[in-house]
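Dear support,

I submitted the protein below through the web form. The confirmation email said the job was done, but the results page showed an empty box. After a refresh the structure appeared. I'm attaching both so you can tell me whether what I see now is the final result or a partial one.
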Amino acid sequence: MADPASDRPDPNPGALRWGAILFALAAGLMLWPMWPPLVLAAWFAVLARPLMDWFSRILRGGHRAAAALTLLLLLLVLVPIGLFLASLISAAVELVQTLLKSPGGKEALESIVSGGAGDDVQIGLSDIVPLAKQYGERAFGLVATIAGATAAGIFGIFVFVLAAYAFLAEGPQTTAWVQDHLPIAPRNFRRFAAAFTETGRGLVIGLGVTGIIQGMTATVAYLALGIPRALVLGVLTALASFIPSVGTALVWIPIAVGLALTGRWVSAIIMAAIGVLVIGVIDNLLRPLLSRHGSLKLPSFVLLVSMFGGLATVGGWGLLLGPLVVRLAVEAVSIERDERLARTGAAPAEQGPDASPPP
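What the results page shows now:
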């Protein structure tokens, strides 16, 4: 027989509440090192939901569709990105070394569009042993660091793929469970979830796609003009597109100046024309169009500062975590204000253009 006392309410709800809080904090602490792949996987599942529904109708099963979509992600996205990064790192290191060796600003601009001093360096067989003795310990440390970063990257990719499959297959059920068990009202949870989704769409679609297209266009132009390290400069152009006002001009203007300083006036004029008439027009036309499908309700200045702050705090992944934390903080303040006005019976104040409307 069941013990009737087992159905009674807990006589000490405060202890149970604090125990739940402590266990939740401990779980968050355990999951914290894996937050970047988990956040990316959640955003991927949200953005891929229409494609997931289409796969489900074809394959007649949610788990089958999730497995097929995850496999396509791994083969068509992650593998090419890994190969791209492997070739990009060495070229980026070479560019930085060339710029650091330049004695002045004029020489630095010229080195961007030329081979640089590093291209003439030759190491003979007889130099290997002295170099190994001189830099062996430093090289070993560098290799160990790279190996550790590689292992962490591989593990992160594994977690991302596994989480992407889980969020695709069980995403709606997981969201419903979290909404039912979190100690906040369901309407407020939906607002936090909407802000989370909005941040992913804004960064990936509104900013990311525009930057990628600008970077690809710039890379083609750099290759056509015979500029070395075009791939690295193209990536820098894509990253510069996040900077308001200046944008991609931060990269292609120095390249055009460097071409002019080296006497390649025709190439310099062509580079300037492509920068203004092609790369700039892409930003002015494509960004508003993509903003309809993914706009981040943060001012450009706040977005940029949050990226830099996240980068300084937690490293490269902070470029994503910074805007996400700031956006959720803005939503939390907005929710608290609306709840306070609802308790006092006052009419909500008119919201600014960067605030989320209440549900």
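Response: this is the final, complete result; the empty box was a page-load delay. Residues 143 and 149 are 10 Å apart (CA to CA).
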